[in-house]
Design goal:
The structure is a single chain. The protein is of the alpha+beta class. The protein has a single domain, classed as Porin (Beta Barrel). The protein contains 6 helices and 12 strands. A 12-stranded antiparallel sheet has the order 1-2-4-5-6-3-9-12-11-10-8-7. Strand 4 and strand 5 form a beta hairpin. The longest helix has 14 residues. The N and C termini lie far apart (39 Å).
């Protein structure tokens, strides 16, 4: 029988995962996820690249946007190297370009992600907010995602392989509660819109509680549920082995500071899919209904061809 899951330890492990190590000027190392198998989660590489970029910018400037392209799938169990290019440092804005690489089978460094991030000194400006938060049930009225996963795993029984079951039920540092049915929950075709609350599974440790870390965790969590939104109109799921997919690019705009250990609403929609790709958008709100970040992503999405 497995040991009880400790959310605080899982969140501490996430903090360690997103704490990059400076090896030399403008070169950082991101450590692999302990016990990770297969392909690295895209949100992890984006968040570590953002952390490397944030570490290279002077105090007083905060990330307001990032744009990333996934070049190859990263492999679990390997360190990821992040090389920084200081493309611009102005009075109000700075720009950093990051190349994330891993060693391939021959020992050569192979790029897996390119990311550009822009930073700005805080200032007052003209304000408007014309993206009202959707009216959805609060997180306290919703079932935790992990409870839904356990129920689904029991329902699917032998239809899930041992590897699929472990992936589905592994402890997660991000707690999610959805008001809708996600792509893995059933095969019904439904509109491509999802509303999910998320936060870290436990409060962040006080010694790691910085705005930069909160931004990195929001970047990490923004890769959840996003690509799956474009699968909803087709009634297909990666979890059931019906789709082949991978993120192609990922963009985030940080509008205002937010705490990743307090409930945030992630409203995603997919206005288009075709040509083996799905396009998805996301808006992230705090409990006060303020828009704190916007997200966009395109991903490869192909129906799996059955052999024979």
């Amino acid at each position: 029988m497995s040991e009880p899951h400790d959310p605080a330890k899982t969140v501490a492990a996430l903090v360690d995962l997103l704490t990059v190590e400076e090896r030399s000027p403008d070169i950082y190392a991101g450590h692999p996820q302990k016990g990770g198998v297969g392909r690295v989660f895209g949100g992890q590489v984006v968040a570590q690249a953002l952390q490397a970029a944030q570490a290279s910018v002077e105090d007083g400037k905060a990330a307001h946007s990032l744009h990333a392209y996934f070049l190859r799938g990263g492999r679990e169990g390997l360190e990821t190297e992040y090389r920084i290019e200081r493309d611009f440092d102005g009075r109000s804005f700075s720009n950093r370009r990051v190349v994330a690489s891993q060693e391939n089978e021959d020992g050569a460094a192979t790029p897996i992600l390119n990311l550009t991030a822009s930073f700005q000194t805080r200032e007052d400006g003209l304000e408007h907010d014309d993206a009202p938060m959707p009216d959805v049930a609060p997180p306290e009225e919703l079932m935790p995602d992990m409870e839904m996963r356990r129920a689904m795993a029991d329902k699917m029984g032998d239809k899930l392989s041992d590897a699929q079951r472990r992936l589905m039920l592994r402890p997660r540092p991000i707690e999610m509660r959805t008001t809708d049915k996600l792509h893995w929950m059933n095969s019904d075709k439904k509109p491509p819109r999802v509303h999910s609350w998320f936060r870290t599974a436990a409060p962040l440790p006080s010694d790691a509680d910085t705005p930069a870390l909160h931004r990195a965790i929001i970047a990490y969590a923004s890769d959840y549920t996003l690509l799956g939104t474009s699968a909803l109109p087709h009634g297909l799921s990666w979890m059931r082995g019906e789709l082949v997919g991978a993120s192609l690019d990922h963009a985030i705009w940080f509008h205002r500071e937010a705490r990743a250990d307090e409930w945030l609403l992630y409203a995603t929609d997919s206005p288009w899919s075709g040509s083996g790709r799905g396009f998805n958008r996301g808006r992230i709100y705090n409990r006060a209904g303020e828009l704190v970040a916007s997200v966009a992503q395109e991903g490869m999405m192909r129906k799996r061809r059955r052999k024979g």
